[in-house]
Design a protein that fits this description.
The protein is an alpha+beta fold and 138 residues long. It contains 5 helices and 6 strands; from the N terminus they run βαβαβββααβα. The chain binds a DNA duplex (12 and 12 nucleotides) through loops.
DNA sequence: GCCAACGTTGGC
DNA sequence: GCCAACGTTGGC
């Protein structure tokens, strides 16, 4: 099982809305960046994604599970980009802020810190374990 | 509200 | 095919 991180602006699609979708989950569509799309395609059923609120909040608030692997995103007129389906799995006991992540030397290498504009990224196992621990999810 | 990073577009 | 201009994202 691998870990990833997906970003959402809470004003557009929030963690509360994600939770409200329950077991049926939702399509993670609208990705229009090639590097982000590569990560979507790498996701397997059962993989986990940290759910990050960007902009106003800047914190990881939950964990979702991939329930359907990459397939064409109908909102892309060119038909080139893909989406996956995810469902909410766990709400973080304590959200992990970008500030905390930046203050942790063992997380200095992750894409969230190094490439602020990337909206879907992979997170290595060691970093994932640390983030879960920081969120009170260890 | 500003700015840096970066992807895309269009003129040449 | 290069590069300037422009648009978008997201942190501060």
């Amino acid at each position: 099982m691998r870990y990833f991180l997906i970003k959402s602006e809470p004003g557009v699609w929030s963690w509360d809305q994600m939770v409200a979708e329950g077991a049926k989950g939702t399509h993670w569509n609208g990705v229009r960046n090639h590097q982000a799309a590569i990560h979507l395609k790498a996701m397997a059923k059962g993989d986990r994604c940290f759910f990050y609120h960007s902009n106003e909040e800047r914190q990881i608030v939950g964990l979702v599970q991939v329930i359907k692997t990459a397939y064409p995103d109908p909102t892309d007129p060119a038909g080139r980009f893909v989406m996956v389906d995810v469902k909410a799995q766990k709400t973080f006991r304590r959200p992990v802020t970008l500030g905390q992540i930046k203050a942790e030397p063992r997380l200095a290498h992750i894409s969230l810190v190094r490439q602020s504009r990337l909206s879907v990224m992979d997170i290595d196992d060691a970093a994932a374990a640390l983030i879960l621990e920081m969120g009170g999810m260890g």
